[in-house]
Fold each of these.
Amino acid sequence: MANIISDETMEYVGILAKLELSEEEKEQAKSDMGKMLDYIDKLNELDTSNVEPMSHVFPVNNVFREDVVTNGDDRENILKNAPGVKEGAFKVPKTVE
Amino acid sequence: MAKQYETVIGLEVHVELATKTKIFCSCSTEFGGAPNTHTCPVCTGMPGSLPVLNKQVVEYAIAVGLATNCSITQYCKFDRKNYFYPDNPQNYQISQLYLPICRNGGVEIDTPAGKKTIGIHEIHMEEDAGKLIHDEWEDCSLVDFNRSGVPLIEIVSEPDMRSAEEVIAYLDKLRLIIQYLGASDCKLNEGSMRADVNLSVREVGAKEFGTRTEMKNLNSFKAIARAIEGERARQIELLEEGKEVVQETRRWDDNKEYSYAMRSKEDAQDYRYFPDPDLVPIMISDEWIERIKAAQPELRTEKLERYKKEFDIPDYDAEILTSSKKMADLFEATTELCKKPKKVSNWLMVETLRLMKENDMEADDLSFSPENLAKLIELVDAGTINSSVAKEVFEVIFKEDIDPNKYVEEKGLKAVNDEGALRATIEEVIANNPQSVEDYHNGKEKAIGFLVGQTMKAMQGKANPGMVNKILKELL
Ligand SMILES: [Zn+2]
């Protein structure tokens, strides 16, 4: 494996993804990520200087909606998925910037 | 000698577009609904839901780009900006990083030193987040996703501004352009236009920029001006003390007139953007751009010139009348009805501005109808009411948009054009004020003014002043 993921990188990625991993899981993730980066390195061996970057796998573009309201009030159903409900709102742990 | 500092300012302006539906779903964008009543699986980020782009959002973005001299990115796409926050249900915001829809534009502003162009780096389309309400009682936060998915454009300027005045002039220019296009109502106090200020200071003559901070929570032009002054002073003080400015986001508290560093989210600003695989690219053809160009409504400068030419309105008045879309619309609609542009302009320039100032109102707050102003102008022209009564009636129109015809009838405000009645009253006034009559005959022209006043008082202000004058002179 050419790419070695450091403990710091693992820590940082964990914070970004909001994941708490056990030591064992961290080792596994480090090895998985290393392998992924190796694969990317392999792809990078190809000369793509004359290839347009692909931004979508389907050769489709311009899929639009007209600006017409068709959704009504579906609050009851939407709130069924909420962790908690208060006054018609999703209730979550206090979050202040 | 003390060091001289220069302020360098760039702006990120978010504008809520005036579409009926959200950017990626058919939920209403209407403001003020009960929490979560304008939501669906897409704008609450339910797994498996798929966004579909609102065509009108693209058209508004192109229109704003064209009106701000940008080049349109004819192949553009959406990217995901990843971060965790409860107001962001998908854990990513759909935005544009790599290929924003408009680039390399600019608008011209007036400064005391002459015209100056403020560059626009880019304009991109994105979705708004939901709203968090903090519940002190239960120590929790409540999330309302009605605003989640409301379409925004973010207009990113170059760091071309050097003072609060330039910032206000630039914002005002953007606001007028966008309002005239009908792409947004751009109300700072209601959040449909929001400005984040990036500010740094450097010694005059320095080539490198200083470290900048970003200020948020600015919801009026006055707050923006104060925040710029406050932050400039804070940064200069740090530098003078030999300290460093820290690159951070600060929240302006307009009551305390001070900005506070926002607690940085525990993670660094690493948004890991990548193309959104749920949305296909947008191809904007030359024809499409041409169609939008052709449909572009008259903008401020064109309107101003037209008012001067078509209606013979003086320069200054035309400036004021076109200084907001609302005022210009009122002027045109009223003129259309009564065909008396000069009189309409006069009512807007004098009484309307006076009442706006007295009530601390913006043009957007005006609520009277062109129909009622036109009727009032007709009443004065026909001599049905005199001009001082008209001013009183206008105050009521201004406040409550009443029908002046009915109001004048009900309140008995019609001018007395009955010469017989007027003559009788004047004879009485003359008999009761021998001193003034004598003064008049002794050459004191002013004395007649007093007699006119007495007559108007006796007639409860409803006499036709021209007639009063004429009869008075005749009888004297
Ligand atoms: Zn929705």
Amino acid sequence: MRTFFYCIGQGLANTRRNILFSIASVATVSACIFLFCMFFSIIANVRSIVYTAETTVGITVFFDESADDAAKESVKQAIMDRGGVKKIVYTSAEEAWEEFKTEYFGEDAEELSEAYADDNPLADSDSYEIFLNDIEDQEAMAEYIAGLPGVRQVNYANTVVSVLKSLNKVVSILSIVIIGVLVAVSVFLISNTISVAAAFRKRENEIMRLIGATDFMIRAPFVVEGLLIGLLGALIPLAAVYYIYGRVMEYFTAWLSGLGTGFELMGLVPLDIIFPYLAGCGLLFGAGIGFIVSFFTIRKHLRV
Amino acid sequence: MIILENVSKTYQTGVRAVKDLNLMVEDGEFVFITGKSGSGKSTLFRLLTRELKPTEGSIMVNDFDLDSIRRRQIPRFRRSIGVVFQDFRLLNDRNVYENVAFAQRVIGASPNEIKSNVPRMLQLTGLSHKYKNMPYELSGGEQQRVAIARALVNQPRIILADEPTGNLDETNTMEIMKLLEDINRMGTTVIVITHSMSMLESMKKRVISMEKGRIVSDTGSERKNKGAGAAAGTESTSGSRAGVIRRRRRSI
Ligand SMILES: Nc1ncnc2c1ncn2[C@@H]1O[C@H](COP(=O)(O)OP(=O)(O)OP(=O)(O)O)[C@@H](O)[C@H]1O
Ligand SMILES: [Mg+2]
């Protein structure tokens, strides 16, 4: 315990002594973790949105006016035969009209729709809504269905989803590259900081060794310094991310609800769900890089 | 107890600094090592502190076999010896008290031990009134006494000093020598490397002279040769050797 506090004290002293290098190291670790949090947030949200879309938006199939129940049934059969279908829902023209009314006229649905009372504008708009196991399959499925006899029109929300998916890929690759570079810079800077500290304490370390200090005693202050750099480099961006994420979510939620009903539940990940992951990863990464880099740097420097 | 058998040290540069050295120093002795510049005194010193490993031969110090000692055991060995250098090697960012306490801290001594040991050492070395001074506020002699206090505070069995008075004037030299003699009288083995002929003559201690890496004379040689012969001999002597160490070991 005494030894522990002594090492912490010496570690702090080290950090204070070469404050500039320490700050530079903290800054790059911070940048790393901040970018990681940002990319992680984007990817998590996009994935969540895609997932929500996949489970709530399907392919809608409308029939030829001439199509009778048997024809519709055979379309269903053909779709099922192709495979990969999670769920298929039949919506009659009346149901479609009710849904449309509440969605577009809201509270005043009954009044406003008086005008159309006896004349369902969505007649012949009975449809199948098809949910697939794999969203990637949607385009092929839509094409396939369009080719079936008795089908008038096929709608599907593919474009948004595929754009989101490719966006996620780009963000993933970008984040790996940028974070990779930053990790390298962090490693370099922490290693340099520790080297400078070691040079600074060279004399002291030599004396310590001759007095009979253990390797642990000699190295610990440097590892403590590395850990401090890493942890500080994690805490700063995490605090920033906590604040920024909350703000961005507020903004997006407001914006989405302005787009109309249905959008508010588009699948954004709330702060209190994502933050524990960010904090965990950030702290682990910060502490890990600080510990490992300083440990190996000092081992190299103080080898007898 | 120090026993060297057929010790040679060749540096990577090819310089043979120590050649086929046989030497035995018993617990409680006071020994001077002298010789011209480059004769291998400091090399011998660094062999004894295990900063260097011998190229050939074996070295026993305080029951530690420095050839086969494990890396992890070296700190424990080093705590059984105290080292003093010509250039004092104090920490210039700490005061006298902290310089001495440092030696205790790095071996994980308790605050209570530190609080009782450090003032005792400062008193022994006559520095009680200067405990708050920084090293650069002290004379060379005083600085060396701080270094001796630091070497002594962990209660080593041997004090090794490489030209401890090399940077000091006559008066300070005599004071340091008197201090080392006092320490020796309290039971600690003292080994001092020196150039000072006047000191050798006035102190009347065992003197080992080196030349080109070899021992060319040893005023304690008659007694010692017998000892070294026994040490090189049968296994049974190692038992009695350990007994001698145990009997002679006293704390300061
Ligand atoms: N680290 C080293 N690498 C190579 N050669 C060395 C090293 N240290 C000492 N030597 C050589 O070993 C020989 C003995 O040196 P050593 O320092 O032991 O002498 P010394 O008796 O202590 O001399 P001085 O009285 O000047 O301190 C010298 O020739 C020196 O040049
Ligand atoms: Mg020398």
